[in-house]
Write a structure and sequence with these properties.
It comes from Desulfovibrio intestinalis. This protein is an alpha/beta fold. The protein is built from 15 helices and 13 strands. The strands form two sheets. Strands 3-4-5-6-2-1-7 form a seven-stranded mixed beta sheet, with helices on one face. It starts with 9 loop residues before the first strand and ends in a 7-residue tail after the last helix.
Length: 470
Amino acid sequence: MSSTSTNDTIAAIATPPGSGGVGIVRISGPEAKQVLSRMFLPLSSKFDNFRPWLMHRGRVLDWNGEALDDVLVVFMPGPRSFTGEDVAEIHCHGGAFIVQAVLESALRQGARQALKGEFSRRALVNGRMDLSQAEAVAELIAAPSREALRYGLNRLDGLLARRTEALRNELEELRMQVCVAVDFPEDEVEGMDAPTFSATIDKVAKALRHLLQGSRRARVMQQGAVVVLAGAVNAGKSSLMNALLGRNRALVTDIPGTTRDFLEEACDLNGLPVRLTDTAGLRKAAESIEELGVERSRQKLAEADAIVLVLDGGALGEAGADAEVCPDPAAREVLDSAGNTPVLVVWNKCDLCMPQKFPPRWIQGQTCCVTSAFSDTQVEDMAEHLRTLLLSEGETAGEEGLAPNARQTLALEASLAELTALQEDVDAGRPYDCCAVRLDVAAAHLAEVTGLSSPAEVLDKVFSQFCIGK
């Protein structure tokens, strides 16, 4: 794409493949209005040379002047268009043959077939959006959930761009002060004392860490979260999974060790895609097959985005809730091995025993709730606890609504690494001119988020993942 001209006129089908009620062919470039005029026959006697932003009804013609379809067309002059240049759209009936024939007519009348993402790339080149906003366009189209739509729309509105640009400006201001201190060493430069310098670095680094916490949410919303149900045998994991799914997917019996292997099913938590994984109960297995299942359970726990630790409330009883130390070996293992993985502790079978003191004394710092999978008591409440845990983990009020994608995360991590090294240089008493180099690099990585310093090959890779009509 980097070798194609941005001065020619391009055209493409802007609606998905297949048949539908309406199909749209989009034309963008300096000759967009001329291409449209050569293939459009207005039906109104009051037609006024494609009055901007107004839909006109007429017939779209093929390259021989024969009518193809009854259509609506609109002309949108630049720079106040999506691409920043003249744009025309033809809204025809959505039959696959009709839409393709309209596109072919536009191509024969002087337009060129657009490449993948070329409309969005022109919007970037013409200053209508930055790279983070362009990526948000593609991610909105492919959004698998309502939450993904919300976070993608925030980036499309420029929230991430504004935040990273503000941080980059702080680094640029610091760099200018460093340059003055280097060029005029005999003069006293305000604000260049080591504590103030370090405080600014720490402030920007802290903001970057907050932004990076949102990258986990981006992955969860785009790919779905892996949630593992774990606990002792007969704690009710399979029953709880069935209750969440709303159907009997997992086999449930009173026989300990019924679940020998993990079982995965897709689930929707109020707009958030989740993959539930029911695992074998954690215990010392009595035979080799169950032992293999327990080992797989431990592997799944290590891969989880969140863990639902299911406690057998009926077996633990009041004594278990009031204990100082966790009396459930399986629960102890899960809590000890969870690390940074968020855990939702569920006191199941609350219909058999509802503890007077909850959460139990031995649960520290974990999200807890009670439920009864058997009677569906408070299962919806538990599902909402899980959804909140998945979306809010690591989220702070200052960065709410931000979720950088994988490319943006790499740029933010690289900038943070430079600032960490810079702080080490300052602590070691390195000269200011060395500091300026790291500030330059850190600021350049932040500029990559919005595409200000992205090379052509990076842009080619980003826009090659777009659909042709966008």
